[in-house]
């Protein structure tokens, strides 16, 4: 059912997100707080009447605009958390069924990554397992810029709420955030938990591995098999599984030791440098930024998950010497590798 | 806007008719001035005041519930606005010098309006006192309506922080203990899942009311976030606060809340935590309170 890998990618302006699925959760939340749908959908090129027909499709850009509107109109610090609590499994047909009837948390997270075009089109979940912990990162897949904190809060809350609901217990999650403690930190306490560290190099949530394989109540159902087939069929109909930025990130990670330039990468993506640049601009980014992000992610992974030394990281990333690596690392994360600290202890 | 016209149509129509009548009378009695004779400074001063008074009138009528205080204030504004309007008209219209009645139209409404406004302000003050009494336990030390919670008739976390800063200072200078209680519903997300978000909101509102009953006059209750509430207890030691916290927990456990739609009985349970403020700032106090609550929380979710 997962024959050949899909080579296509979605852009921020491809209309494929069913408006009555994920976006409707946010719309309903705003409606329940007395927000007028006309105000909410202003600038989204979308009408409530169209959503109700079930045929309206919107692009990641439109979804981001909707999030921006909802944030401003609701102007309450708990919007992202309430949205996150209602997000998964949700009522999105086979995609939701996959999550709800997963065998365990690990499988649910794997499915979430595999079918993110259906379940999490704006943020890509990235799982790293070390010998004791699962570390879950989130990568921006469509150029969220200002909405990225909202999306992080919502997605993290969604995973916490999903696991808690299915396993009927509070998991001992630990969180690190790449930003300063927000003024509304009490929302983090209530919706995520109290093991929080701010001002860290990356945003990541971790949980001991023994919680990953606890059986979920509807494990091994035949329905989930069928649901997975129909999700795969949907991806094949689109011809993509991941976003353009995801593909770029994957390509850059794979070729990180080679000299990488806009021209070369554009050639690998079978397009001209000018249109490649345009495509990046559409996502509010540019080549050097993506290259730095990829290197930063890789460096953090090698240091924190793999426990590599400076020499090994420098060699892996193709740096000629450690001084260079340290200087670049400082530029990416604002700190030197030696005061990185572990993933679990601030 | 529609409802405002319906409720206060008479007041607004009265002002409009009076203003029109004023124009008619002046036009009938006097002659229009030449362009060069008009003193524009006066026009701007008097006309501008009249306009601002009308804006105040609209804001007042839109913002306040109808009633005696609103009626007094709006009538007062109508009279003063009318007086300014007539004042401005005689910049455009020259009246024969023998007419003395115009003074009555210009000047007389002003003291009447001022009198009505004063009477209105007096009653406004009385009204505010009555409302303050109703707001006790939800608001103390200062008011900032922008910090009210959007869902529950309580103040939110930002208000709590500012209140706590002042309360800590006060406790410090008076050398008295200050304690805090955190109250958190167990399995609130299950209520949301099973009965819907509207029912969850209802539970929070009921819980806020119930907790208010359990507090003394000098205490203050805020909604921190989600289903977590914080009570600030001035002049209270930790053991007394623990007793109050236990009372709150029990009163929530024995609350017979029934759902709005089908009237099913919901069994609510809460976890509480109590701390006494030491030598620390409001952020540290809240953080410690939160940690205490996390330790008190049951790990396993309650089944069924």
Automatic annotation (TrEMBL), chain B:
<protein>
    <recommendedName>
        <fullName>diguanylate cyclase</fullName>
        <ecNumber>2.7.7.65</ecNumber>
    </recommendedName>
</protein>
<dbReference type="InterPro" id="IPR029787">
    <property type="entry name" value="Nucleotide_cyclase"/>
</dbReference>
<feature type="transmembrane region" description="Helical">
    <location>
        <begin position="40"/>
        <end position="60"/>
    </location>
</feature>
<keyword id="KW-1133">Transmembrane helix</keyword>
<keyword id="KW-0472">Membrane</keyword>
<feature type="transmembrane region" description="Helical">
    <location>
        <begin position="72"/>
        <end position="88"/>
    </location>
</feature>
<feature type="coiled-coil region">
    <location>
        <begin position="124"/>
        <end position="174"/>
    </location>
</feature>
<dbReference type="InterPro" id="IPR000160">
    <property type="entry name" value="GGDEF_dom"/>
</dbReference>
<dbReference type="InterPro" id="IPR050469">
    <property type="entry name" value="Diguanylate_Cyclase"/>
</dbReference>
<dbReference type="Pfam" id="PF00990">
    <property type="entry name" value="GGDEF"/>
</dbReference>
<feature type="domain" description="GGDEF">
    <location>
        <begin position="176"/>
        <end position="304"/>
    </location>
</feature>
<keyword id="KW-0812">Transmembrane</keyword>
<keyword id="KW-0175">Coiled coil</keyword>
<dbReference type="InterPro" id="IPR043128">
    <property type="entry name" value="Rev_trsase/Diguanyl_cyclase"/>
</dbReference>
